[in-house]
Known about the structure:
This protein has 16 helices and 7 strands. By secondary structure, it is mainly α.
Amino acid sequence: MSTATATEPQQGSAPTDVVRNWKTPVILAVLSVLALLVFAIGAPDNSVTFRLSATNDALVLPDIVLSAVVTGWVTAILMLAAAVWSFQLVRSGRKVPGWLVAVFAILFIVAFLTWVVGSARTPNVALYGLLAGSFTLAVPLIFGSLSGVLCERSGVVNIAIEGQLLFGAFSAAVAGSLSGNAFVGLAAAAIGGVLVSAVLAVFSIKYIVNQVIVGVVLNVLVSGLTGFLFSTVLSSDPAKWNSPPRLPIISIPVLSDIPVLGPILFEQSVVGYLMYIALAVIYVGLFHTKWGLRTRAVGEHPKAADTLGVKVNRMRFMNVLLAGVVAGFGGAFFTLVLVSSFGRDMTAGQGYIALAALIFGRWNPLGAFFAALLFGFATNLQYVLSALGSTVPNQFLAMLPYVVTIFAVAGLVGRARPPAASGVPYIKG
Length: 429
């Protein structure tokens, strides 16, 4: 879909070739036509109410009321205009700016939300609740995707995120129950994640076993092991083995009083605040420290890093173990924050979704963070719309994050390229 054409050379200069990439304009055009047919022509004849605050909040914000028909047509026309503009930009040899894609995405989300809520029996939704639930569901995904960033930036493919989350949740439940202390359970979750990572590191780095196979086997092993222990030990005496206390919710003064976003971001458990810290530390560490430079070097060109004195396999081993700590904290969220007990396979594939968020985020901590929020939003939207009586099938809503990921890989947000040496074992010599 890309063609190379020669531009008119300036006087005294050689002609230059311009590569025109039509992927983004074509995708925007397809989505624009879809928006026109579904969100505009097929708009329900309802007014949609988005509530920004609860009636008992200190500061009550006014509701946003939108006509589904008007919103559908306005957003569809604006999206069509953006698609046409992107065609003009590519035709003239220029690149489609990222902000144009971002604006298009926001318009599409607004149009979709207005259409899908307007189609429900009760076209009235608490936007603050939708956002809060989305952020809550995204916390383990964020930890899992950050774990994947640490591994893959080091050159190790981490398919075992699911197993790390699950064993972290199991360890937190057992340790928290036996000790009666949620913080002991949190520490045990980190150890549980490290144990799974240690197996991954030993087999994939030391014994050079295929990393994808090791990850899949670890997921199956942890699922079977925790399921067996749940049936034979935890279920025999739940009060002793499977009743961990919950981590307390800590509210930050002033910040938690910010309308809409304050309670969502600044009324969190320790795990939530650890997520902020992990995101900041990993981002700054990867791109602004010597450790980060070496980590990226062993993930991109390990032979060159070895030539400069970096111990490649030692660096990879250390980072995989660190990734286990991060994923373990994500697992603790299930049993110490979300519910106060462990259930068989309670992570329910969240590790695989975190892996998709990692790819969607282009192996960048911030990108993975926002991709995980999108997945959490789509997941929570299913529950909210079911409560509102939406006519849209839940299965369709569950597909949305994966459809977005396909569009991203196809070129909507740029070519997703993993670290060059990811999945490639390094043998010195």
